[in-house]
Amino acid sequence: MKNSPATVSGSSESLNTKDMRRVLGSSLLGSIIEYYDFILYATAAALIFDKVFFGNLDPGLALFASFGTLAVGYVARPLGGIIFGHFGDVLGRKRMLVLSMMMMGIATIAIGLLPTTASIGIAAPIILVLLRMVQGISVGGEWGGATLMALEHAPASKRGLAASFANAGAPAGGLLATFVVSGVSALTGDQFLVWGWRIPFLFSAVLIVVGMVIRLKVAESPVFKELESKAAVVEKKRRTPIMRVLRNHPRTVVITLVASLGFYTMQGILTSWGVSVAVAEGVERSTVLNIKGMAAVVTIVVCFAAARLSDRIGRRSVLTLGGVLGVLWAFPALYLMHNGTAWGFMLAVLVGNGVIQGILAGPIGAYISELFPADVRYTGASLSYQGAATLGAGFTPMIATALTLAGGFVWVGVFWAAVLILGLIAVRMSPEGAQSQQVVAPSKKELQRH
């Protein structure tokens, strides 16, 4: 007899219980802290690191090299997803979330203390790349764990909304990073590029302490506990989670990865490459950062609304809406970013990053997770999502820079639209997971069939 979602996901259809509030709070706050650190680096790569660590190069090459170090973190994210996914499926979700937060905090604080190229030469950018790799591995493990802790504790009718708390942490963390950088930039003035840029990185120490206190109080996922009670360990010893994912669910990996690419491609263009474009076109740095922060607020609101809507009409319908709007907005957004005005950049980012990305971000966590069975969900969902992050946000700023140098920003628009169209095709090819029973723990017989 199969367990109902209520059996393993909570006896109430409400998220407003003490335990559920603690789970959602931990998921949101943990993601905010992780993405504060991760997106802080993206902001620094666009505005600071080309001058601090690559100042000996021509400006265009320096920016390209700076975005290259940014890409390293995204390349490391699938590796983090595989490593943390393996142990998350074998040892539990909670332990991996604690470890990922510790790793991220140490790496971010170390970046804040790192001497510049002028002080220690080429060792500085090399160490910077290594620390960025640690950040990438850490955030690669964070998203899957935070999403699954919320999803697997939640009642079936609220899974989309619950899972969105982890995704909402990304724009919230970006918002915090943007405002901290903007505030420190205003306070330190001409000294910002000398020493002021280090303050936001060192501030991470405070956030990590707060996050660890909250995260340690959260109970392990009930679905994982159910798996353990069904002797899933025997199966895990026969084959690792990543091998089971690649052997039994390759189509799901490809479809969910491609479906997530548009979300991250827009992020890379609008919030990394677009920031450098706006500043180069004459918009004040502090104005650009404040606009980016405003867009993050819109993203958070739309993310929750879209997730709740996906619980009612399905994940695919909401993702389709976001994908169509994304295609239509590609060329208008690029034109607005290049017109050299604050209002143009603001409109491009508020609609693109705020509204459209919010629509895509809302259901994406539940959409991916529901398509993988519980015993390999951490590994499968992390591999797909982090693979999309690597190919999308990780390389997009470099691709956009190269396309602009080669033929103008119109080619960036072609690239943007093409990726989103592929994502739409993938979404329409996938099944609807909103009512999926895969979220509950499989029986012993089902495990043995794997």
Automatic annotation (TrEMBL):
Predominant place of localization: membrane
InterPro entries linked: MFS, MFS_dom, MFS_trans_sf, Sugar_transporter_CS
UniProt membrane topology term: Multi-pass membrane protein
Keywords: Cell membrane, Membrane, Transmembrane, Transmembrane helix, Transport
Superkingdom: Bacteria
Pfam families registered for this protein in UniProt: MFS_1
Xref: Gene3D superfamilies: MFS general substrate transporter like domains (1.20.1250.20)
TM region positions: 28-49, 61-84, 96-114, 120-140, 161-183, 195-216, 253-275, 287-306, 318-337, 343-368, 380-403, 409-427
PANTHER family from the UniProt entry: SHIKIMATE TRANSPORTER (PTHR43045:SF1)
Compartments (UniProt record): Cell membrane
Entry keyword Cell membrane: yes
Source lineage: Bacteria, Bacillati, Actinomycetota, Actinomycetes, Micrococcales
The protein, known as: MHS family MFS transporter
Keyword Metal-binding belongs to the record: no
Domain Major facilitator superfamily (MFS) profile: residue ranges: 23-435
